[in-house]
Design goal:
The chain is mostly beta strands and 74 residues long. The chain has no helices and 4 strands. Strand 1 and strand 2 form a beta hairpin.
């Protein structure tokens, strides 16, 4: 759970392209402050605007395993 006003610096690298998102749920609706498709790396700062439980999700849609390195900092 993150409070409004918090900033989280995030960065990742993957050996194969992955889909990545940061999301949270408000009732039945899913909000995506960050959404990337088929990326091997990414990074930015998440400015939390709503106090919610945030989910950080990577999806590997290829048939082979990949290695993922990530960093999250407040």
């Amino acid at each position: 759970k993150l409070a409004a006003g918090v900033q989280v610096r995030w960065q990742f690298e993957s050996a194969a392209p992955v889909d990545f998102n940061v999301h949270y749920h408000q009732g039945k609706e899913v909000k995506f402050p960050v959404k990337l498709s088929a990326q091997t790396n990414g990074g930015d700062t998440l400015d939390v605007r709503a106090a919610e439980d945030y989910c950080w999700m990577w999806s590997n849609k290829s048939a082979v395993a990949t290695t993922l390195t990530l960093s999250l900092r407040r």
